[in-house]
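HOLO CASE FILE
Compound: zinc ion
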Amino acid sequence: MSIDPGHNGANAQHISEIDRLVWIGNGTKACNTVGTSTDAGYPEHAFNWDVATRVVAKLRAAGATVVLTRPNDSGWGPCIDQRAAIANGAHAAAAVSIHADGGPSGGRGFHVIEPALIPGLNAANIAPSARLGSALRDAVRAGSSFPTSTYAGSNGIVVSSIYGGLNLAKVPAVFIECANMRNATDAALLVQPAVRDRLASAIVAGIAAYLAG
Ligand code: ZN
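Model generated. Tokens follow.
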């Protein structure tokens, strides 16, 4: 398993480094970005790190072998192409990138992002990633404090080719935007450790459901 906490705690102090363009399979994109935050200043990188480390602990407790794409929340990067390479190099059974969105303040909820077909690049990875995405969507809808998104995608699913981490994946891969940090209701929930722990358990349940086929 590969778990990828989006962004990193010192990205904001390394703008020139993270602005470097990297190839993402169908064009170029910045190596990394700073991410969003709640209105009160809880940063997305910290939320992602907290949820990801809870997911990793639960997966390892269940006997899974897990790689994390960054070792802490105090560095910068790695670039998005490198995050995909970590999952590919580990031959991960599934790769999940954990984020929270900076969406419209009136919109709530989570959505899962699945890779779109890029001819010649990722055809073999589309169907397994879609199965992983559906399993994750079902589990997070059932077991977290967040509804499926009221503003993005359809039924909690977005299919996209703008993410390097998905385009370059050779293993089943999805992103989850766990909540909308710009929405007051979601923000009041996601700052609570118990809410993040419940979310992490739901993510683990989704991964387990996918692996069980
Ligand atoms: Zn993000």
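CASE NOTES: The beta strands are 2-5, 21-23, 28-30, 67-68, 95-101, 111-115, 157-160, 173-180. Residues 123-143 form the longest helix (21 residues).
CLOSED: yes
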